[in-house]
Amino acid sequence: MTDRELILEAIEARKMSYSPYSHFMVGAALLTKDGRVYRGCNIENAAYGPSNCAERTALFKAISEGIRDFDTIAVVGGDKDAKPEEMSFAYPCGVCRQVMIEFCKPEEFRVIVAKNTDEYKVYTLGEILPMGFGPADLGVNKK
Ligand code: THU
Question: Is the pTM of this model over 0.90?
Answer without folding.
Answer: yes
